[in-house]
Amino acid sequence: MDNKLDKLIIDDTEYVTEVPEYSRKPYKGISDPSEIRAFIPGTIIEIKVSEGDMIEPGTVLLLLDAMKMHNEICSRDNGLIGKIHVAQGDMVQKDQLLVNIIKK
Q: Domains of the chain (ranges plus CATH)?
C-alpha cells in the first residue's frame, strides 16, 4: 500500500501524518438536489406524492423498505414533483433515481 506524508495544521500547530492511499477517493461533489435517489437498496412500499404535486422541505415522498425497516424518503427543498421513476413494489438499488423535483 502506498502511503503519503501530508501536513495537517490544527490551532497553528503543524503535524506530519501518513495518509493511506485508499483514503484518497475522488470527490463526487454534492448530489443534484433535483434528484432524489435511494440511499440503500430496498423495496418501494408506498409512494406518497404524485407528479405535479407541490412539496416543501420535509415532505414524505415515498416509503422504502430496507432490511425490514421502513424509511421515509423526504424532500430537501420546495418544488414540484416532476417525474416519479419507480412504482410501488419495485426493488431499487443504491443510488437509483427515484423522483425528479423541479425547483420553484
A: 35-103 (2.40.50.100)
